[in-house]
Amino acid sequence: QVQLVESGGGLVQAGGSLRLSCAASGRTFSAYAMGWFRQAPGKEREFVAAISWSGYNTFYADSVKGQFTISRDNAKNTVYLQMNSLKPEDTAVYYCAADRSRGSYHDTSDAQSMLEDAYWGQGTQVTVFS
After folding, report:
1. What is the DSSP string of 18-58?
2. Dihedral-angle region of residue 70 (phi above 0 means left; psi in -120 to 50 means alpha; beta otherwise)
3. Which of 51, 92, 95, 126 could form a disulfide with 40 if both were Cys (CB 3.0 to 4.6 A apart)?
């Protein structure tokens, strides 16, 4: 059974940074793509970023491109999301996702398909105040 455990969320002032971590267990971590999604109150869950099995390919939502960086350490079975220059609109619960079957994607639009076929973590709250 795949388990994903997020950490690193919290309360931060606008302009600050946070790094989220997601530790995975239960299958061969290095074979599958990983990603981050977020859900703000009253809104649908949205794609943030994804990374291929090797870490070579990364994909970002336009809203976070240049601001967030996704990375992975296959030796530690962990995926990260470095979030810089945080804004109040980044406030949300952030969810780690592990694709159930795919190792990579063709483009960002394809990466968003992870929403329909992924294992999920429990989420970690990120609150940005101005």
Report:
1. EEEEEEEESS-GGGS-EEEEEE-TTS--EEEEEE-TTS--E
2. beta
3. 92
Instruction: Calculate the CA dihedral of residues 114, 116, 88, 11 and round it to 10 degrees.
Output: -80
Quote the percentage of the chain above a pLDDT of 70: 100
| Structure confidence by residue, pLDDT tens digits, 98-124 | 999 999 999 999 999 999 999 999 999
Adjacent-strand bridge partners of 125? 93
**DSSP assignment, residue 15?**
T
Give the three-state DSSP class for 62.
coil
60-80 per-position pLDDT tens digit: 999 999 999 999 999 999 999
User: What would the two tokens of residue 80 be?
Assistant: 């990260």
Q: What distance in Å separates the CA atoms of residue 61 and residue 50, rounded to the nearest whole number?
A: 9
